[in-house]
Automatic annotation (TrEMBL):
Residues 52-98, 142-154, 162-180, 199-214 have a biased composition (Basic and acidic residues). This is EF-hand domain-containing protein. The keyword RNA-binding does not apply. Keywords: Signal. Residues 182-214 form the EF-hand domain. InterPro entries: EF-hand-dom_pair (IPR011992), EF_Hand_1_Ca_BS (IPR018247), EF_hand_dom (IPR002048). It comes from the Bacteria. Residues 29-98, 142-214 are annotated as: Disordered. Residues 1-25 form the signal peptide.
Length: 214
């Protein structure tokens, strides 16, 4: 028997197995990003993946930073899972599961009687039921959710503009540290993190990119 000819295919097979294992491991490696949509990613709040959120990580999300001290019940400078806002991490999957639970008869629709179990949905039933057939289906619920999201975004944008103009006392289109400390004190602690170019000023773009007005 030619052992050399037999040994070569074994080496090739081993190399394939090792390569496949490496590829699988790469797909399972922890990531500092979470999927935000097709082709887009957004940074995780817990950027170092240690299971808690410290003040530096929260500073990149000003609305969370503003509430940090209130949420930090044990005053250890970190937010663990029990201290985080209950709405963090909720997405379309959670809303879909909730809709499925309301569909008690399992027919793929939510009737007026089934919607009564959720007061907020019951109140808006007629508005969501776009075809007026007395049932809510997935596409109607999704359309309503997107509409409300757009309305909230417009409201937040308007509020942001009002807050920015109110704080921008010299109307130069920028907020100095003094203007932030005097007129937007809850944002003052995050000033250095938001001022990435270190020019001592915060522009609308600095705050928009941080999600401050959302």
């Amino acid at each position: 028997m030619n052992h050399r000819k037999t040994f070569q295919p074994l080496l090739l097979a081993a190399a394939i197995v090792i390569a496949a294992g490496s590829a699988f491991a790469a797909t399972q490696a922890p990531s500092t990003e979470t999927k935000a949509g097709p082709g887009r990613h957004m940074p995780r709040i817990d950027s170092n993946g240690d299971g808690v959120i410290d003040k530096a990580e929260a500073a990149a999300h000003p609305r969370l930073a503003e509430k940090f001290d209130t949420l930090d019940k044990n005053r250890d400078g970190k937010l663990d899972a029990s201290e985080r806002p209950s709405r963090m991490g909720r997405g379309h999957g959670d809303r879909m599961e909730h809709a499925v639970r309301l569909d008690t008869d399992g027919d793929g629709r939510i009737s007026r009687a089934e919607a009564a179990a959720q007061p907020h949905l019951d109140e808006r039933f007629a508005e969501i039921d776009s075809n007026r057939d007395g049932y809510l289906v997935r596409s109607e619920l999704r359309a309503s959710s997107e509409k409300r999201r757009a309305e909230r975004k417009a409201q937040h944008q308007q509020q942001f503009e009002q807050e920015f103009k109110g704080a921008d006392r010299n109307a130069d289109g920028k907020l100095s540290r003094a203007e932030v400390e005097s007129n937007m004190p809850r944002l003052a602690e995050s000033f250095n993190f938001l001022d990435e170019d270190r020019d001592g000023q915060l522009t609308r773009q600095d705050l928009e990119h941080s999600g401050r007005h959302r």
